[in-house]
Write a structure and sequence with these properties.
Largest sheet of chain A: 16 strands, antiparallel, barrel
Distance between the termini of chain B: 37 Å
Distance between the termini of chain A: 25 Å
Helix content of chain B: 25-40%
Order of helices and strands of chain A: HHEEEEEEEEEEEEEEEEEEEEEEE
Order of helices and strands of chain B: EEEHHEHHEEHEEEEEEEEEEHHE
Strand order of the largest sheet of chain A: 1-2-3-8-9-10-11-12-13-16-17-18-19-21-22-23
Shape of chain A: elongated
Largest interface: A-B, 26 and 42 residues
Helix content of chain A: under 10%
Number of strands of chain A: 23
Number of strands of chain B: 17
Number of helices of chain B: 7
Oligomer: heterodimer
Radius of gyration of chain B: 20 Å
Chain lengths: 442, 302
C-alpha cells in the first residue's frame, strides 16, 4: 500500500468549484455537467417454493446546474412461480380453476394452495426534476408510469422543501397522485360468487366488468433537524387515501365443513373426497376505500466515516391494520474505498378487521353481496417479519459497486377458530425469502 | 487594534521590457508583477490595472487587520452565526475540502497559534502547555459551516493567509485571460500563474531564490499553470542549537520537525500548488515522498 494518498484529483475538483472556469479548465467543467451518472442494479428475489423475481434497474441522473438535476429510472420485473390463492390446505389434494376459466390446477395435500399460473413482467419508467426555487427553497417534480400484462399505473408527485433556522431545519411538504387500472385475465369476479369448474357454461355469470381502477392521493409533511455536525433527526407524517377497486381478483376464501374442517366439494356440496373435483371457494371482497396514516422518525449519525441509521414507522388505517417497523443499518467504513453495511428490520402488523381465513359451510355471504368484506390474503393477516442482511461495497473515484444479500422471514399466528382437520393444518405457514442485489455506479 | 491601512489609493507602474511589458505594484505585503507578452502599452496598462485592483480587493476583503470587512464581522460575532457572502462561501468550502483532504493538517483556524509563536529568529519557544491550551481554539471541525451560515466558537479565528495570495493570483489570471489571449504571467511575491506559454520562448523562466546560505539561484521553467512556494528562511526560532520552523501543526500546536526550508510546487492552478507546498511542509521529513506520490513537479530546499 502506498504511504501517501494521491490527492491531486480531489484537489483539482475542489479548485474547480472554487474558481469556476479557469482559462484552461473549460473542458473539465463542461464534462462535469454533461455526463450522466448511471447506476445499474440487478435484484434477484426468491421466496422458498414460491415467487422468483429478477429485476434489472437502470437509473441515470444528470446535473443541469449546481443544484438542479433530472433523474430517470427504468425497471424491468420478471416474476415467475406460484402464489398463494387464499384457500386453506387440507389432508387431500385440491383442484381449482385457473383465473381465465379455462383449465385447472391441483395442489398438493397438506400444503398451502398455490396458483402456479403466476408469471408476469413489468416495465416501469420514472423521471424526476429537482430545481431550486430560491436560495432556501427547492422543488422536486416527478412522474412515473408502469405497465404489466394486466396492470397499468400512472403517477405524478411533487415535493417542496424549505431550509430555515440557518439551514439547520428543513421543512417539506409533498403531494402525489396515482391512477391504477387492472384488467385481469377472465375479468373482475363478482364478490362472494363461487369459483366454477373449468369450462363451465355459466362461468361468465360470476364475472362483472373486464377492468377496474383505483386512485391514490398521498400527502406528506416532514421536518428534518440537524442536531449537530454529525447527526440529524427526521419526522414525517403521511396521509394516504386510496379509492376504487382494492380487491385482489385472484384471491379466494375456502368454504369448509363446519364439523370436519374439510373443504366442501363444489359439485356434491359435501366434504371433498379425492380432490379431483373443484373445492368450493368464493371470491374475496374488500372495501372500496382505504385511509392510511403513518408517522415516521429517523435518526442518522456519522462517526468519522461510519454511518448509524435507525428509523421507526407507525402506520394505522381504517381497515384496522396497524403496523410497527424498526429498521437499523450501520455503514462500516473498512478503508477509504470499502464498506460493509449490516441491516436489520422488524415489522409487525395486526390483521384487517375483515380478515377471514375460511368460511364454515353455510356462513359465506351470497354472491354479489358488496356490503360485507372478507379476505383470506395472508398479507392482510396478523404477521411479524424479520429481515437481516449485509452489503459489501467498493467505492472508487469514478465508479463503485456493491453486493447485498438479505434473508426475510415472515411468521404469523394461526386463527383461533379452526375446526376439525384445520387443526392439523398450518393456515399461515412461515414464508421465507432470499434476496441478492448487485449495484454498479459508473 | 484594527488600524486602517491603505487609505490612500495605491498605485501601479508599467515598464517596457524585451518581451513586452511589465506592470508592478505592491499588495499583500509583497512585490507583485504582471508580465504581458504584447507590444501594446495600452493593453498592458489595462491588464495591470485589472490585476492590481483584484489583488487589492481580495487583500482588503480578507485581511485580518481591517475593521470594515467580513472577517472582522466573523471575529467579532462572539459565537453568533454570521451569514457569509458567495465568494467567501466558496473559499470556506474549498478550505473545508482541504481540511478533509489533509486529514486536518491544513486548517484555516490554526492562525491563533501566532499568539504564542513569533518567528523573529529569537529563542522564544512557547511551552507545550501553552500550545495545548490553545488547541481548544483550533479545529475546523469545531466550526459550524452550513452554507451560507458560519458559526465560529468564541476565541477562534479564521485566517485565509494560507490560500489568499494564491487565490488572488488565480482570480487575477482569470480576469486577465478574459480580456486578452496574449500570454500573461502573474506573480504575487513568488506565487504565480502563467496563462499560456510565452510567444518568444518555449517556457517562462522563474527564478527560485536560494535560501540557507548558498547563493546559487534555481531556475524553474513552466509553459503554463501555477507555481507556489512555502517556506521562509527568515522565519524561524532557534534554541539550544535546535531550529524550529515556522510551519505549525494545528493538531499539536507545535512546530513541525524536519520541515524543509522551502518547497516549490507546480500545479494546474496556483492555489493547488500552494496547498500542496504547504502540505509538504507539514509532512516534515515526509515532504519529498508526499510530493512524489502526487505526480507534480517540485523543488525542495532542505
Amino acid at each position: 500500500m502506498k504511504k501517501h494518498q494521491k490527492i491531486t484529483l480531489a484537489l483539482a475538483s475542489a479548485t474547480c468549484s472554487l474558481m469556476g472556469a479557469l482559462p484552461n479548465a473549460h473542458a473539465d467543467i463542461s464534462a462535469d455537467y454533461a455526463d450522466w451518472d448511471v447506476n445499474a442494479a440487478l435484484l434477484i428475489y426468491n421466496e422458498s417454493d414460491r415467487v422468483t423475481a429478477v429485476e434489472p434497474v437502470i437509473s441515470a441522473k444528470k446535473q443541469i446546474d449546481t443544484d438542479e438535476s433530472i433523474a430517470l429510472k427504468l425497471v424491468y420485473d420478471s416474476l415467475t412461480g406460484a402464489s398463494a390463492n387464499g384457500a386453506v390446505p387440507t389432508n387431500i389434494a385440491q383442484t381449482f380453476t385457473r383465473p381465465s376459466g379455462n383449465g385447472s390446477y391441483t395442489t398438493t395435500a397438506n400444503e398451502t394452495s398455490l396458483d402456479d399460473t403466476f408469471h408476469d413482467t413489468r416495465v416501469a419508467i420514472s423521471a424526476s426534476w429537482e430545481m431550486p426555487l430560491s436560495r432556501m427553497d427547492k422543488l422536486v417534480l416527478g412522474g412515473n408510469i408502469s405497465n404489466e400484462y394486466d396492470y397499468t399505473s400512472i403517477g405524478v408527485s411533487s415535493l417542496f422543501s424549505r431550509d430555515i433556522n440557518q439551514r439547520n431545519t428543513t421543512l417539506s411538504a409533498g403531494l402525489s397522485f396515482a391512477s391504477d387500472s387492472i384488467s385481469p385475465i377472465g375479468g373482475i369476479p363478482d364478490p362472494f360468487s363461487e369459483m366454477l369448474p373449468a369450462g363451465d357454461a355459466n362461468y361468465s355469470t360470476t364475472r362483472l366488468d373486464s377492468s377496474e381502477s383505483k386512485t391514490t392521493v398521498d400527502i406528506l409533511f416532514g421536518i428534518t433537524q440537524v442536531i449537530d455536525k454529525h447527526s440529524l433527526l427526521q419526522f414525517n407524517y403521511s396521509y394516504s387515501q386510496v379509492d376504487g377497486y382494492l380487491t385482489d381478483p385472484f384471491k379466494v376464501i375456502s368454504v369448509v365443513d363446519a364439523i370436519t374442517g374439510i373443504p366442501i366439494d363444489q359439485v356434491t356440496g359435501v366434504a371433498i373426497v379425492s380432490g379431483t373435483t373443484l373445492s368450493q371457494v368464493v371470491y374475496e371482497n374488500r372495501p372500496d376505500s382505504r385511509t392510511k396514516h403513518s408517522l415516521f422518525t429517523q435518526y442518522k449519525r456519522n462517526f468519522s466515516g461510519d454511518v448509524f441509521d435507525i428509523s421507526y414507522r407507525y402506520m394505522f388505517d381504517d381497515w384496522d391494520i396497524n403496523s410497527h417497523t424498526v429498521d437499523f443499518k450501520y455503514r462500516l467504513k473498512t478503508s477509504d474505498t470499502t464498506f460493509w453495511k449490516p441491516h436489520i428490520r422488524f415489522y409487525q402488523q395486526s390483521e384487517a378487521e375483515f380478515y377471514t381465513p375460511f368460511y364454515l359451510s353455510g356462513s359465506q355471504p351470497t354472491a354479489g353481496t358488496n356490503t360485507t368484506f372478507a379476505t383470506a390474503d395472508y398479507r392482510l393477516g396478523e404477521m411479524t417479519t424479520t429481515t437481516i442482511g449485509i452489503e459489501y461495497g467498493h467505492v472508487y473515484e469514478n465508479h463503485s459497486w456493491s453486493l447485498a444479500a438479505e434473508y426475510y422471514l415472515q411468521t404469523s399466528t394461526e386463527p383461533s377458530n379452526k375446526v376439525g382437520e384445520l387443526n392439523n393444518q398450518e393456515l399461515s405457514p412461515d414464508v421465507d425469502a432470499f434476496m441478492l442485489r448487485f449495484n454498479y455506479d459508473f | 487594534m484594527n488600524k486602517k491601512i491603505n487609505t490612500l489609493k495605491p498605485e501601479f507602474k508599467i515598464e517596457k521590457i524585451n518581451s513586452g511589458y511589465r506592470g508592478c505594484f505592491n499588495a499583500m505585503a509583497s512585490p507583485c508583477e504582471v508580465l504581458i507578452e504584447a507590444d501594446d502599452a495600452q493593453l498592458a496598462s489595462r491588464i495591470t490595472d485589472l490585476v492590481a485592483n483584484e489583488a487589492w480587493r481580495i487583500e482588503q476583503k480578507f485581511s485580518r487587520y481591517r475593521d470594515d470587512n467580513i472577517l472582522y464581522q466573523i471575529h467579532n460575532a462572539k459565537g453568533k452565526t454570521v451569514e457569509i457572502d458567495e465568494e467567501l462561501s466558496y473559499l470556506l468550502n474549498f478550505s473545508q475540502q482541504c481540511f478533509q483532504l489533509s486529514d486536518g493538517l491544513f486548517d484555516i483556524t490554526s492562525g491563533v497559534l501566532r499568539r504564542i509563536w513569533t518567528f523573529d529568529g529569537s529563542d522564544k519557544i512557547p511551552t507545550r502547555k501553552q500550545a495545548k491550551t490553545l488547541l481548544n481554539n483550533i479545529g475546523w471541525d469545531k466550526v459550524s459551516w452550513k452554507p451560507p451560515y458560519l458559526t465560529l466558537p468564541e476565541g477562534m479565528e479564521i485566517d485565509l493567509g494560507g490560500i489568499g495570495k494564491e487565490y488572488a493570483v488565480d482570480k487575477a489570471a482569470l480576469l486577465a485571460a478574459a480580456i486578452t489571449d496574449k500570454p500573461v504571467l502573474i506573480n504575487f511575491g513568488g506565487d504565480l500563474f502563467a496563462t499560456k506559454p510565452p510567444l518568444t520562448r518555449k517556457a517562462w523562466q522563474v527564478g527560485v531564490e536560494s535560501i540557507g546560505g548558498s547563493d546559487k539561484t534555481g531556475l524553474i521553467q513552466i509553459a503554463a499553470g501555477g507555481i507556489a512556494t512555502s517556506g521562509d528562511a527568515q522565519r524561524y526560532l532557534e534554541r539550544d542549537g535546535k531550529r524550529y520552523s515556522h510551519v505549525l501543526n494545528p493538531k499539536t500546536g507545535w512546530s513541525v520537525a524536519h520541515a524543509p526550508r522551502s518547497v516549490t510546487v507546480a500545479a494546474p492552478r496556483c492555489i493547488e500548488a500552494g496547498f500542496l507546498s504547504t502540505m509538504a511542509m507539514l509532512k516534515g521529513k515526509e515532504a519529498k515522498s508526499f510530493l512524489q506520490a502526487q505526480d507534480v513537479l517540485f523543488w525542495i530546499q532542505e
